[in-house]
Amino acid sequence: MLVFILNAGSSSLKYQLMNPESQEVLASGLCERIGIDGRLIHEANDLKIKKDLAMPTHKEAIAIVLESLTSGEGKVIDSIEEIDSIGHRVVHGGEYFSESVIIDDDVISKLESLVPLAPLHNPAHIIGINICKELMPTKPNVAVFDTAFHQTMEPAAFMYALPYDDYTNHGVRKYGFHGTSHYYVSDQASKMLNKENSKVIVCHLGNGSSICAVQDGKSVDTSMGLSPLEGLIMGTRSGDLDPAVLAYLMEKKEMSAEQLVNYLNKSSGLLGISGISSDLREIIEASTNGDEKAMLAIDMKCNRIKKYICSYAGILGGVDAICFTAGIGENADLIREKVCSGLEFMGVSLDKTKNKVRNSENREINTEDSKTKIFIIPTNEELVIARDTYKLTKV
Ligand code: AMP
Description:
Number of domains: 2
Largest sheet: 8 strands, mixed
Low-confidence stretches: none
CATH architecture of the largest domain: 2-Layer Sandwich
CATH class of the largest domain: Alpha Beta
Order of helices and strands: EEEEEHEEHHEHHHEEEHHHHHEHHHEEH
CATH superfamily of the largest domain: ATPase, nucleotide binding domain
Mean pLDDT: 97
Helix content: 25-40%
Number of helices: 15
Structural class: alpha/beta
Bound molecules: adenosine monophosphate
Shape: globular
């Protein structure tokens, strides 16, 4: 069984070819600069092949990927007939989808109706799905949604305190994102806890970051909202703000609504505060050289994470495990240490030596006597996509 996993963005796409049963990744890669010029990075057979190739549209990009899987030094299969099914990462499933689905015309029309809520993402996913249907017409396609895991949130968690009609007429509510990662990590955590009823807080800290409170395997609250802009301070996104700031900035800086959304998404967060980079490694380096804005950016990021952890511990009525995942969560011991420090009152005690150990395993980094476990769990969204695709399409 082989699943082709596709994550189609507006000018890029990521892919993997995986056997969901053995978890073996045969190939993975990335097409960048689609619609501009085109660049392929294909990893297979212990090789990393980089090529500049014309990709005027996603169609050429996907065709190039399929060719790379079946020919040349990055070849891993003889023909695309060996691919059994295709799993698509889809950012926004709105309230329609609380689990992964086989894609048919009805699913596509629902994805189209959600474009106003995910204008940057869903159009690219629809393009990716249509091209796969065209290039591999006999293969089933499955959609795996970033929002699906959070559909278990109760209204008290997902509603905004706006007039109720904004929800019923315009779908204004918290949807939450990174659901595939939060599901995977919380599931791993409950296995590590070996406990039937568990209260887990997952900190997915990457360039995009969000936190999720998970009770008995179900998302009860999460920090991202209508869009992935709400919540934590991210690489270039502001996260939470006083909404009054928006109108104030629009007036003072003579910005349109579109410019403002762009500003909050692309020029804010760690990049905006530090003026250095959206990449935490560069900010940590600057802070060790005494850069005050870099130090401030780190302190602000950690404070925000801590606020969410404490509020979610309150919502859950306690916490069995705090989990760190994604680029920052898995690798940045400094951030984990700053986040956990001061949380001793709620039974969180970090083992500073274990915190510094680097590997790619699931691991426990709390002290022996810590009431709350602290886990590092490398996320694996692709595995969830491959498994869901396999489950839905196996004959
Ligand atoms: P992701 O979006 O999950 O790929 O995570 C990207 C983020 O992880 C970037 O901000 C990187 O700077 C950060 N990151 C990756 N490795 C490290 C590291 N060793 N130390 C600190 N931050 C890291």
